[in-house]
Amino acid sequence: MASALPPPDPAQERALRRLLWLVAVGFFMQTLDATIVNTALPAMAASLGESPLRMQSVVVAYSLTMAMLIPATGWMADRFGTRRVYVGAIALFVLGSLLCALSSSLAMLVAARVVQGLGGALLLPVGRLVVLRTFPRERFLQAMSFVAIPGLVGPLVGPTLGGWLVEAASWHWIFLINLPVGVLGALATLRFMPAPAPMERVRFDTGGYLLLALGMVSLSLGLDGLSGLGLRQASVLVLMVFGLASLTAYWLHALRKPYPLFSPQLFRVGSLRIGLLGNLFSRLGSSCMPFLIPLLLQVTLGYSPAQAGMMMLPVAIASMSVKRVTTPLITRHGYRRVLVVNTGLVGLTMASFAFTTPTQPLALSIVQLAAFGAVNSMQFTAMNTLTLKDLGPGTASSGNSLLSMVQMLAMSMGVAAAGAVLAAFTEVFGGGGVQTLQAFRATFGCMALMTLASAGIFWQLAPADSRTAPAASEPDVPESG
């Protein structure tokens, strides 16, 4: 007769639960700060003497910094140790939050958001790595499901909390609330996070990383320079060409390096190739919505920050509710059909905001926001699982990091592009109340067309790539944009 398994050690179980809560709180801080700023942008603009229509650089700086640092997170954790890097991530996040609250100009605020983004970029990947190395394999999925819950709660409460803090106190408090949480988190990390065993150090591809980072920064700054930075057209052109040249140079560099950051061999997997390109171009359009909608509500329709935050609740609630039906739909119809149809629905719901009027019934607005949240959430789930489903054990980690980087880069470029389009239409229509509403309508229409165009990418899925595979799971990336 087989002997019974020994009962779990209560002390070890308590230590594992504490570790999960620690990683979950770090994830919550990161996802909360990715969304809490959006409803506070008009109040920030008034305080700093800026136009609320030119505040997209505050959002771009955070997401672009995260995209830049994600490729280096695994190497940093191996080189310096997960506990040390996690404490450093919290410290950077808290320092960036304090600097944001102390900012007296837009330039200072953008620089502070870069510091905050450096910390935020490390919180999720390193926390996930700690869980992977601490929990036995049969409990990893359950552990990561627990950690993922704050990633859904953060975007749910972020816009509402941000609007309430702006009215109850000031916009500075959307950053100051991170300070006590961060200090407690750092102390808890030193107390409860295990010190890992030394890892084999792989030489970091510094040249490839610099080419990749320069390419991403140049392209995003080029888009943002069309409106927010006031760069002349020639400077924007130089930045865009420099960015494309850097990304091309990275590709050639990766082809001849034995251990590049992201091997070109990954792109031999058809589902990953189409999933990444679809993620990039689809999110370029849809990721602007959490930035544009609170601005539309406050700048042109007279909503208060708290009211604008409350109006984002239908988006988050519908996003969470639709998760249950997404997998059965993909299983029944396949990735190709679901993504082509759903991309069209995302574009159409975005285009519906081009018909917004000041006299529109509240119920219609709620239905409109909920519909966008539902189809956008389904889009993210389908795109993410498509990208990773055919990767083997040796390429899953690299593919997941590449997907996370592409997602954050698309969020950054999408907000920058929306800001540029909005600035251009504001100049065309003028700066009055009705004219500003017309500029918003035209911007929603243009970004919707950009999203609709990405359906052609998913149309290229081969029948074999369109079939479902249970091997991969959706990465824990906040669906805030």
From TrEMBL:
Keywords: Cell membrane, Membrane, Transmembrane, Transmembrane helix, Transport. The keyword Transmembrane applies. It is a multi-pass membrane protein. InterPro entries: EmrB-like, MFS, MFS_dom, MFS_trans_sf. This is Multidrug transporter subunit MdtD. Its main location: membrane. The gene is mdtD. It comes from the Bacteria. Residues 19-466 form the Major facilitator superfamily (MFS) profile domain. The chain crosses the membrane at residues 20-41, 53-73, 85-104, 110-131, 143-165, 171-190, 202-222, 234-253, 274-297, 303-322, 334-356, 362-382, 402-426, 438-459. It is found in: Cell membrane.
